[in-house]
Amino acid sequence: MPHRYKVGQMLDMRSAPRHSNRPAGPCEVIACLPHDKGPVLYRVKSWGEHNERVVEETDLSPSNAMKTVFAEGESFFDIAIGKR
Q: CA–CA separation, 34 vs 8, rounded Å?
């Protein structure tokens, strides 16, 4: 079964059903993990956390969220000044 989503794609992650602190919300696909049997897995990074998680494809859905153009800690003004 092929992966439905691609690396770099923004998705919505559902919160875990029980016994987990996984938050719901937008996340980015970091890697599509190999599999032979069982669920299709992805490594994702949530916008609200610093750590990455491994989640099943069934816990992800397409999102309207877009990646930010700026690197972390960089603002529009840093880019404008740097291009002068």
A: 17
Domain boundaries defined on the chain: 10-82
The sheet carrying 52-56 orders its strands as: 52-56, 41-46, 25-32, 10-13, 60-62
Q: Is 4 left (phi over 0), alpha (psi -120 to 50) or beta?
A: alpha
- Predicted structure pTM score: 0.70
Separation CA 72–CA 74 (nearest Å): 6
In this structure, are residues 5 and 32 in contact, taking their beta carbons and an 8 Å threshold? yes
pLDDT tens across 44-69, in order? 998 778 889 999 999 999 987 776 54
Q: Are 64 and 25 in contact (CB under 8 A)?
A: no
